[in-house]
Amino acid sequence: MLSERRLQVLRAIVQDYVGTQEPVGSKALTERHNLGVSPATVRNDMAALEEEGYIAQPHTSAGRIPTDKGYRLFVDKLAGVKPMSPPERRAIQNFLEGAVDLDDVVARTVRLLAQLTRQVAIVQYPSLTRSTVRHVELLSLAPARVMLVLITDTGRVEQRVIDCPAPFGETSLADLRARLNSRVAGRRFTDVPSLVEDLPEAFEVEDRGTVSTVLSTLLETLVEENEERLMIGGTANLTRFAHDFPLTIRPVLEALEEQVVLLKLLGEAKDPGVTVRIGHENAHEGLNSTSVVSVGYGSGGEAVAKLGVVGPTRMDYPGTMGAVRAVARYVGQILAES
Amino acid sequence: MLSERRLQVLRAIVQDYVGTQEPVGSKALTERHNLGVSPATVRNDMAALEEEGYIAQPHTSAGRIPTDKGYRLFVDKLAGVKPMSPPERRAIQNFLEGAVDLDDVVARTVRLLAQLTRQVAIVQYPSLTRSTVRHVELLSLAPARVMLVLITDTGRVEQRVIDCPAPFGETSLADLRARLNSRVAGRRFTDVPSLVEDLPEAFEVEDRGTVSTVLSTLLETLVEENEERLMIGGTANLTRFAHDFPLTIRPVLEALEEQVVLLKLLGEAKDPGVTVRIGHENAHEGLNSTSVVSVGYGSGGEAVAKLGVVGPTRMDYPGTMGAVRAVARYVGQILAES
DNA sequence: TCTGGCACTCGCGTGCGAAGAGTGCCAGAG
DNA sequence: CTCTGGCACTCTTCGCACGCGAGTGCCAGA
What we know:
five-stranded antiparallel β-sheet, WH-like_DNA-bd_sf (chains A, B), transcription regulation (chains A, B), three-stranded antiparallel β-sheet, repressor (chains A, B), homodimer, HrcA_C (chains A, B), 12 helices, alpha+beta
């Protein structure tokens, strides 16, 4: 077990390193923090911390930098979440309030998060499966061609063009639309399959094929993994860590282009509060030198999707966590209003 | 006026520089291209080309690199558009064909373009103002709250939530929906304002306020500059030019985050064919060392939006132009089908 | 257990010299 | 007038040695 002072030393190392981006030595530590002990003592503590794997030196004769394990301890035990200041809160609210539709909300949120944290922001669209149906619209494009439009309570809109096996009249279409809506409107998407399974039976034989096709398209839309969407922004912030660069930024940009990777990344965070995954805790290789701070957000009590930021492991964890949490809270409010 | 051979020298310089990314000298030139003259002659030609501002040397004792003006001449006079090979064409078609909706088409197009050109791809969503209305849907969310959903022939869907000045009944809503659609369905968006201006008069006095609100929201949606959307991808490709990096990539990433900048960028290209803007020809400062290759695409004869790529001025122009043109063509086809 | 002192290790910046690439110019040939 | 070969010159790049400074580890003493 580490003594109280050693934990303080670790905390000081993390704070200094995050601030300066440079390995921190024993002397500098005692000068910048009032630890009340001499550099020599700190050196001993550092040796112990290194022994335990919390810090490391890039090369002999340099200062120490925290390891992933060190950051983990810092986040779990040594630091809290830094709340946003009132002016910041107001700024967040103002920034999000002008949004005209869901795309706009998401886009603004991404920009906001990227600006606040000065890192790469990721915002997932509200998940269909965790939303409820507001309306299902069917439009006839051609005699045997129908467009299905799905609208959720969170403002998300999905559409599909369907080729029908047989021509489908306007009246049948109106009938299907009405029946569909009366069954599913206001219900949770996860309940939709069981709510519509017997629907074809209500139709004439010649229309049943088409009705089934429409319904199966509707259900396909809800298949997890297909239905998830997200938006990212603030990639320019990656260039702020320009030293080691090309080698470090490349895989990150590549990972960010893979929606699947990102969705998995966000999906892994099960914690109801702010989740932090540090360095190698991220499954994806390209993100081994980054940390991901994420949290769920939702219009009501329940999370309908996640948002977060990706940054270097040497980030300001308390501040980032605070910003992420605050933004999630306000986005939830905005969604609830619309 | 430049002699034929000097133009060939310029072409050779551009080709070699694009290939190797390194300043090209007179000796290497005569070896790699059969110019039929000696290095000394080429040196004289180079001096002339430099005099005219087509090439430059980074420092006294290095080879020459093309200037923006040199690339411009190359693109205009010395190189054509390199057509895609049949296998490439098939690959493009296959890649785009699986798309389920417009977002998917755009997303796939971005990925495709980024992969083909190994550069940053930008795809604009079909412009509303240049599309026709497929359907307008109105949904009642609350007694005095309506959702407006707009669907275009290109598959684009926009939605807005409207707070009405007065409660609006289901029947009035249905009435408005029917009248709206009968007037605007199939018509061009630019004609919508004049088609609906007298619509409030058909309603009871108490509903007129709401109808006007709905209509003005509809018209707002069409305001150019608000209605444009785009998607970008392939930013990881920026890291391929890793030498000069941090300084060069930073402003580009920043510019790419500014939708406004990008829209202006694409908007400036008036040419009906493939447009190339080289280096300083781009108004935005951050893009001064990049070139933008763009082209309009559309479901019919007319362009509904643009797509293109952003890359270093030292890019393979013929190949990039070929890829951009080919992709635009196929995207147009796909849109026409759906 | 903490502290001050001291020797040691390394990374980093600097200066210098050799190597190499490429140019510009010039005189001569076609 | 144009092209060519030769030659001197310039400038960048690279390798290497050197010294400085930061930081460590260890030890003896309080």
